[in-house]
Write a structure and sequence with these properties.
two-stranded antiparallel ribbon, alpha+beta, Pdz3 Domain, globular
Amino acid sequence: LLEHSAPFCGGDVRASLGAHIASLWSFEKEERAAAKQTLHLDDRLTVLWTLDRKQAPATPLRAGDVLLSVGGKPLPAGEKGIDRLNDVLIDAART
């Protein structure tokens, strides 16, 4: 259903690994200290939670995993990490 409904969403479609991934840079500056303390985040892209196996059966990711690369493409730590992840996922979805 989700895959076949994507054309109706226009530009509001996003590729996914079946997980919520974040780093400190995913939060506003004033929220970063709390994110670091409560979610144990740093500059690296970290899996916060994953969809259950019924929703995302192919994902090998687990909460706490740190993403260093996807499909052999490196993911930088820091401010540009989440943008690079999105670019890699979009490129993979096109092929």
